[in-house]
Design brief:
By secondary structure, the protein is an all-alpha fold. It has one helix spanning 47-61.
Length: 65
């Protein structure tokens, strides 16, 4: 009589409990008017087109510097 071995599979849960915040969050801004914004581009293709369009939309909607 032949015997077969069954593989044992262990499933782990990689999630951890959320960390406790050591510092309070900064207060929210009243708006973007008069604020300076910066964009960080990681050189992905067409990122420059995205940021040019985003800048135009933000300047139209909010009076950003």
């Amino acid at each position: 009589m032949a015997t077969t071995k069954t593989a044992k599979l262990i499933v782990l849960d990689p999630t951890a409990a959320p960390r406790e915040m050591l510092q309070a969050m900064a207060p929210a801004l009243d708006g973007l008017g008069g604020q300076s914004l910066g964009f960080l581009w990681n050189s992905k293709p067409n990122g420059n087109l995205l940021f040019e369009r985003l800048e135009k939309l933000l300047r139209e909607k909010y009076e950003i510097a």
